[in-house]
Amino acid sequence: MTQRSAGRGLAVAYCATIFLSAFLLFQVQPLIGKYILPWFGGSPAVWTTCMLVFQVLLFAGYAYAHVTTQYLSPRQQGFLHIALLLLALVALPITPDPSWKPTNSDWPALKIILLTVACVGLPYFILSSTGPLLQGWFSRTHEGQSPYRLYSLSNLGSLLALISYPFVVEPSFSTATQSIMWSVLFAAFALLCAGSAVTMWRRASIPVKQSPVAVNVLDPGRPTWGMAGLWFGLAMTPSVMLLATTNQVCLDVAVIPFLWVLPLALYLLTFIFCFDSDRWYARRPYSIAAAVLLFLTVFLGSQGSQTSLTLQVVVYFSALFCTCMVCHGELVALKPNPKYLTSFFLTISAGGAAGGLFVGLLAPLVFVSYYELQFGIVGFAILYMCLRLHEDKVRLPVAAWCQPLLVLAITAVTVGIFSQFGRRATGSVAVARNFYGVLKVERLPNPQADRSMVRLAHGRIEHGSQFVSPDRRRIPTAYYSESSGVGQLMQRLRPGQPKHVGIVGLGVGTLAAYGQPGDRFRLYEINPDVISMAQEYFTFLRDCPAEQTIVTGDARLALEFEEPQQFDILVLDAFSGDAIPAHLLTKEALIGYLRHLKPDGLLACHISNLHFDLRPVVVGLANELKLISQIHISEANPDTGSFKAVWALLARDATVLSASVGIAAETRLQRNPIVWTDDRSNLFEVLW
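Above: the chain's sequence. Below: its structure in token form.
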């Protein structure tokens, strides 16, 4: 009775340790991602690169668990793990040092990888090894009991961490406080894990014979290489779909922790369901649902950015969930005897890491646009067909009509996807992809020769355009027309006098159309490809008689290190997709901008957005810093190639603002003013 109670107590300790490790594992991911997001321009690739590091570290942790379980005695394994826990405690706290801030835009992915490994690498490695390691310990100390449900418990802790972060942790605590809290919890985990290790080697000094629990009927012995290949594919495909879906949604909506967390939570939820019990997964309904939703995903991808936010989120994330359910459900159906538990999880982690490497490193080098999601869909279809061909329980009459249909479906989806590639390439003058996204220069012909245009698109959002005709090419277009808020400002602020203008976000250089001899323009651009395309395919910069200086790198960081520039006008126009990086509209950011303005200088913020009403944020920040604000809205005009534009204009002196753009009618806000800071910003507050 005493031994049974001790066994139950040890099982509870295992459960608590696994749960806490998984919770910490997935709390630190959005924490580190949010911490360094402002340092690297707010690009969706920041999160993708962080995820790549986390997946590789997860694989390393699983490999460590597999090797130590196979080749070390329980006592040796316990001593080694306790030593690593002590080293990880020395590495605390995990707060990134400001010295890691990049001074230029060269190799941002490499810098993120090095930063993440240096700040959180060892603690994350230890946490990632806990799940398979303690499941192996459980098999040694609890003979005849299946350890696989502990994996479901691990994913439950991960899910709780992800759900609590955007709704509880992020709104309630600063990033610095989050870092301290995480470090304290890690210390508690280290004590709990060390205690479990000591108890394990005392109870498992003699290896026990494994009981054949949950042996898969298709694979009663040692897993074959073919089976391992299926495990690998069933783990890699959902990993690719997870990261590709997150990339796609962040590109078109916003780069915020919630849109990182939600797809990852759905991904983990499928692990929880599938590893908890067979009753959660049924192949036929989930396969049909996945097929329908993936078709809708392909269709939605061809419709452009005007699709509603709700529809995008529902379709993309539902397709991700059903795809992951199919892959993880089939993965559980092929799980081996617990004797091969660590090799099973090692293969799964290798597949996940391979998916991260594909999306995070290989795809930007191979593809000129965001094609990862489409390739993930094709890969899923091929993998599903391989599963059906592998399964010897399918009757021949069923296979006879099922397999041709699968081949036909794969062919149809592939043709549809690659036809999208062709349509996207039509009319393109140049295409470039790097860490910051996909840029494409396109010609827009018009029956009227003088109305033909060339434009720059970032993803599916236009970021500037220019008339091709020599007599119209100096007309400012898009969001920067003469009737826009910034156009009014550039024309009416001290006319005839030289102006010093700072511009955050180059675009195609449209604002240079307002430059006059004697003016000085200082342009900040983080994406080197934007600079080269603006100079090669557009003439705004070449035609501008003003003195021009282009600063490469994140504007906020560059301004932080520069001496006060004494700008007459500072224009904030740095966008990614249709998402404004939140770190450019915080209280700390505005204080930095004001340092570079003359006492009578003005700040112009471009806040046109499909999904978010940012006026309450700008007004709230203006009120907080005792500034005068004015919201200027101009309508579209096809004759001048201009769009509807919303600009927020801020000044220290009301007379300067009214003299520059006049006195506008008061804009009624639908929400109370909001103040964002670097530690706290919530885009849910400003959804249209």
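Residues 20 and 188 are 9 Å apart (CA to CA).
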